[in-house]
Structure formats: structure tokens, C-alpha cells
Design goal:
about 325 residues; zinc; metal ion binding; alpha/beta; ATP-binding; Rossmann fold; about 10% strand; two-stranded antiparallel ribbon; 9 strands; 4 iron, 4 sulfur cluster binding; binds zinc ion
């Protein structure tokens, strides 16, 4: 029988990319260490920072919330939790409850912002109109609207950093998607915070060096109350890319890390996105955009909706 490569106990995972076996304790230690190293390596958080962590209630974001809660008590960091309620019945209502209970347990302030109050409709309602067009791309709409709302809410809450739970798999999928779509501009913007733009809260991703599978096992071992189910709207190219990368990783372990490292090597050679990048105010909602109309408003217009130009955080 295999043993943990570090302590000889029963293993819970075989990390094929590094060739080692880890038991429950050694896996927990490894996840927590990589989380701290990722923050330190990129100087993601400074003492005195106010960090808003985006928590959907899924296993990744719940794990990140616990990791950051622990981290912030030792580092003079103010932490609060933000949840976007897209309005997905049977899915988000369950995870919203988990996010609320989790933040309460940790004694963290929890703010919820809904699509309905910000945009006038729930995602379910938007999906119904999108279905009528015959080209439903609900997942893409949701992603763009959610990102924009996260930024606006974090800014209004006075955040210095917005932490999201993107893991290694998410990062690799996004990089590959940009290659496949041939989108050099978007690839250049990926993982770059526009310098000195106070309208954009700098985003940090402390789980980006940890494979999804390890975070899932970590969340289970730590007994976190979190949602495992996948959103029913997930579709399109991203799922194909995910399956393709997973297949590659199965036959060629280290593929995911190599794709991420290759992107990091390539990044300094990509066009400088901050150069000539001029921000205007969106003529409808006032949010920052390089165009006259921001992308969320453009999408909302197609659905006959409008973003409300007002503060979304009331207290
Ligand atoms: Zn061990
Ligand atoms: Zn707008």
C-alpha cells in the first residue's frame, strides 16, 4: 500500500505532477503553504489593507474565505465578504445561505448585491429572454455582469483589494480560451490590474497556484459547509477547454502548471495594455470603460434592460 511521502500515513492524494503522495494533514499543510506563498510572492496584500473576498458559497470561495480569515487575524488586515446574487433558482439560493452562515461563523461582515436590484432582472429572467433569441449565452452574460458588479460593490465598500477564488484550473482555462479565440488584447489584459485607476479595485487570486482537485479535497477535509454542485448555465467553449486540459493533464501531468508558467514568461512580451489606455465614463451607468458604452450596458441594452446609475451599497 502507498504511504504519504512525508510522514508515512495513509495518502488522500497522489500529486502526479510532483510525484508525491500526501496524507490529509500533509495536503492541508501544502494547500495553506501555497496560499501564503502566492500572496507573499506577488505582494498581494499589505498591512492595513481592506480586503473584500468574493464568496459565492461554492467550495473554492468558501475555502478562500476561511484561509483569508485566518491570514487576516495575524496580519492587520480588514476582511469582509461580498456575494453576488445572480438570481439562479435552486442553485444560488442554496449557496447564498452557505456564504451567509460561513461569514457569520467567522465573524465577518457579509454584503449581498443582487442582479435584480442592480439590473432590474434576475439571471433566470435574462436567460428566458436570451433563449428566445436562439443564441443563449447566459454564462458569458452572467460573467461580464458579475465581474462589473463585484468591482463596483468592492469600490463602494472602500476595498484596497478584491480577492477571488480562481484556482489553477480556472486560470489555465482562461489562458487557453484566449489563445483559441485568438484574442491577444484580452490575453494581454489577463491578470493585469490597470495601474493607478481608482475606479478599478485591484484583484488578487491567492488560489491560482492550487489545482481545483486539491482545493476540493481540502474543503472536504476541513469540513467546510460549501456547495459542490455546478451552475446549470455553464456551457460553451470553456467546458470543452476544461475537458481537453484535464485529458492532457491525465496523460501528461504538469501540463496545467506549464501552461500557467508559460503565460507568466510570455506576459512581459505582450503589448502593454496600460499604454494609450484611456478610460471614459459609460454614458449610461457612469462605470469606467475604454468605450463610450460599457460592456455590461451593451449586453443589458440587448435585453431591453438598463443598469441603474446609483450606489448599490446602501449602508
Ligand atoms: Zn503526511
Ligand atoms: Zn455602463
Amino acid at each position: 500500500m502507498q504511504k504519504c511521502s512525508f510522514c508515512g500515513r495513509r495518502p488522500v492524494i497522489h500529486q502526479r505532477y510532483s510525484g508525491v503522495y500526501r496524507c490529509d494533514r500533509c495536503l492541508i499543510e501544502s494547500v495553506e503553504k501555497r496560499f501564503r506563498h502566492t500572496i507573499a510572492d506577488k505582494d498581494m496584500i499589505s498591512p492595513g489593507d481592506k480586503v473584500i473576498v468574493a464568496v459565492s458559497g461554492g467550495k473554492d470561495s468558501v475555502a478562500l474565505m476561511h484561509l483569508l480569515a485566518n491570514y487576516s487575524t495575524h496580519k492587520n488586515v480588514e476582511l469582509a465578504v461580498l456575494t453576488i446574487d445572480e438570481g439562479i433558482s435552486g442553485y444560488r439560493d442554496e449557496s447564498l445561505k452557505l456564504a451567509r452562515e460561513g461569514s457569520k461563523e467567522l465573524g465577518l461582515k457579509h454584503v449581498v448585491v443582487s442582479f435584480e436590484e442592480a439590473f432590474g432582472e434576475t439571471l433566470d429572467q435574462m436567460a428566458a429572454s436570451l433563449n428566445e433569441t436562439g443564441k443563449p449565452d447566459t454564462c458569458t452574460y452572467c460573467g461580464i455582469l458579475r465581474r462589473s458588479l463585484l468591482n463596483q460593490a468592492a469600490r463602494e465598500l472602500g476595498a484596497d483589494k478584491l480577492a477571488t477564488a480562481h484556482n489553477l484550473d480556472d486560470e489555465v482555462q482562461t489562458i487557453m480560451l484566449n489563445y483559441i479565440r485568438g484574442d491577444l488584447a484580452r490575453l494581454s489584459r489577463f491578470d493585469v490590474n490597470p495601474p493607478g485607476r481608482e475606479e478599478f479595485v485591484p484583484r488578487i487570486k491567492p488560489l491560482r497556484n492550487i489545482p481545483e482537485k486539491e482545493i476540493t479535497i481540502y474543503a472536504l477535509l476541513k469540513d467546510f459547509e460549501a456547495q459542490i454542485a455546478e451552475c446549470s448555465y455553464i456551457s460553451g467553449l470553456r467546458t470543452n477547454v476544461r475537458d481537453f486540459v484535464n485529458e492532457l493533464e491525465a496523460s501528461h501531468p504538469t501540463t496545467k502548471f506549464k501552461i500557467l508558467r508559460m503565460f507568466e514568461k510570455l506576459k512581459p512580451h505582450l503589448p502593454d495594455v496600460s499604454e494609450g489606455f484611456e478610460l471614459k465614463e459609460c454614458k449610461i451607468c457612469g462605470e469606467p470603460t475604454p468605450e463610450g458604452l460599457c460592456r455590461p450596458c451593451e449586453l443589458l441594452e440587448q435585453l431591453g434592460l438598463g443598469r441603474r446609475k446609483k450606489k448599490i451599497i446602501s449602508n
